[in-house]
């Protein structure tokens, strides 16, 4: 059986509870697709992408958190391997949502930069984890 550190156990618990926030995003998406929330086509696409990224990246982040326990990484590198994807799970959806906010918006605002920041965190996290797993 996989033995979790205290930090990993607490992080996993908090992340599991964050699914409720993602679920509320699903309720918002339901209002959009049923026409009860008026948005532009651009906003509909970005809100959908933000919601999807949140769900997928939280799931992947939990897997990375667990797999990080099987590495010999330490310090910053262990943190990055175990939580880089979880940070990306916040930053990337925020980029989609915040850059599409505002009545009638047709194109992203400057918050779109968060998408790139999240992508870098995602790549750094999974790359560090992969190297850590291969090294043992």
Automatic annotation (TrEMBL):
This is DUF423 domain-containing protein. The lineage of its organism: Bacteria, Bacillati, Actinomycetota, Actinomycetes, Micrococcales. It comes from Cellulomonas fengjieae. The chain crosses the membrane at residues 12-33, 54-73, 79-100, 112-134. Keywords: Membrane, Transmembrane, Transmembrane helix.
């Amino acid at each position: 059986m996989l033995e979790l550190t205290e930090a990993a156990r607490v992080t996993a618990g908090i992340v599991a509870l964050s699914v409720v926030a993602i679920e509320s995003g699903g309720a918002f998406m339901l209002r959009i697709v049923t026409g009860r929330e008026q948005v532009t086509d651009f906003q509909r696409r970005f809100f959908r992408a933000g919601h999807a990224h949140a769900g997928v990246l939280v799931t992947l982040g939990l897997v990375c958190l667990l797999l990080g326990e099987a590495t010999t990484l330490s310090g910053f590198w262990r943190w990055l391997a175990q939580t880089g994807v979880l940070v990306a799970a916040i930053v990337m959806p925020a980029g989609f949502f915040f850059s599409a906010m505002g009545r009638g918006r047709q194109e992203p605002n400057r918050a779109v930069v968060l998408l790139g920041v999240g992508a870098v965190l995602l790549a750094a996290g999974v790359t560090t984890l992969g190297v850590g797993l291969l090294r043992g």
